């Protein structure tokens, strides 16, 4: 059963009077998720660091991983800091194997990801 990809864009404080954008994904991420993944990213302030929240994602197939990579390559090209959290152990391993960890740190939860991206943005 395929579940439609849902996204929500939030802003959180970085603890240093700055802001971090959080892209929250839910459902499945697949080839039909292009507008949800890339469209959501297109709407964020590129001057702010971004957290990718996968905690409510049920499944990501190879096409979905390709969309995530495309988004991360764009962020990298712009010099935007990105971190991901909420991945199952399986998808943490997959993201590392396909090289996503080169473009975004992978963390167990939002607090760890925000702390890491906040300190790297101020460094």
Automatic annotation (TrEMBL):
Q: Which Gene3D superfamilies match?
A: STAS domain
Q: Name one GO molecular function term.
A: anti-sigma factor antagonist activity
The organism's place on the tree of life at top rank: Bacteria
Q: Which residue ranges does UniProt annotate as crossing the membrane?
A: none
All copies of domain STAS, residue ranges: 20-120
Q: What is this protein called?
A: STAS domain-containing protein
Q: Which organism is it from?
A: Edaphobacter acidisoli
